[in-house]
Amino acid sequence: MSGRPFAVGDRVLLLDRKDRRYLVTLIDGGAFHSHAGFFHHADLIGQDEGCQVRTTGGAAYIAIRPTLADFVLKMPRGAQVIYPKDLGAILLLADIFPGARVLEAGVGSGALSMTLVRAGAHVTGYEIRPDFAARAQENVLAMLGADDSARFSVTERDIYEGIDETGLDRILLDLPEPWRVVKHAASALAPGGILLAYLPTIIQVAQLREALVDSPFAMAETLEVLHRGWHVEGQSVRPDHRMVAHTGFLTTARLIQAS
Ligand code: SAH
Description:
By secondary structure, the chain is α/β, with parallel strands linked by helices. The protein has 2 domains: 11-66, Vcp-like ATPase, Chain A, domain 2 (Roll); 69-255, Vaccinia Virus protein VP39 (Rossmann fold). 25% of the residues lie in helices and 32% in strands. The protein has 6 helices and 15 strands. Strands 9-8-7-10-11-15-12 form a 7-stranded mixed sheet, sandwiched between helices. α3 (111-118) runs parallel beside α4. It is globular and about 65 Å long. The structure holds S-adenosyl-L-homocysteine. S-adenosyl-L-homocysteine is lined by residues 79-82, 105-106, 108-112, 126-129, 132, 158-160, 174-175.
């Protein structure tokens, strides 16, 4: 929450002069160490966001609360996360709304989970790896706090074997063989429900799209999100030299009544 001074337990993003970013959790008696000495967490507690702190060696840091995107890029990860550029698009492509009943598999590090929960969805996650399931739960709790995290649960199971839930609004997949979920998704989703899959290779997309052709899903679409940052400094105003050229393809389809 912004507008509130920093307190013990808050996550804080520290930016140094070179725009390097560090995520810390404020604790009683804690300290942040850098190449140029340290500062005490107590120096931040009670201060407003955007304040500056200096280490004993004179290095200056701006302290601000992390956005969801900052947190996703800095949080502890087990599995590879879905990047912010795709997370934003997923919210609209899957038409996530407050109160939506969403099934997500696999859960991985929980980047997509926290995005969905923060948008107001009730999320059930299926994850085959217990260590990832635990990590995702910790990450969602750390980012969103206990109240919002109550709308997120993870069960340790293989979604290829079936889905128990019925009447779901949305099913979101980030796993290697989503075509094996199409049949289960058709009986777990409510009519008009949306299936979305994130896939790194176009071969996988082709296989999923083929499975969707012989299914009660329609309106299948696939796209990728290209995000090109710009360098803006004095007379030098141009696209950045580097960009993330590829992450994954997003495929959506809607459940209609089988003819
Ligand atoms: N979307 C996640 C990352 C998911 S990584 C994020 O944004 O953080 C893919 C995850 O799918 C891994 O954790 C893997 O263990 C899990 N997985 C793979 N096959 C699965 C299956 N059949 N059922 C459930 N989870 C599966």
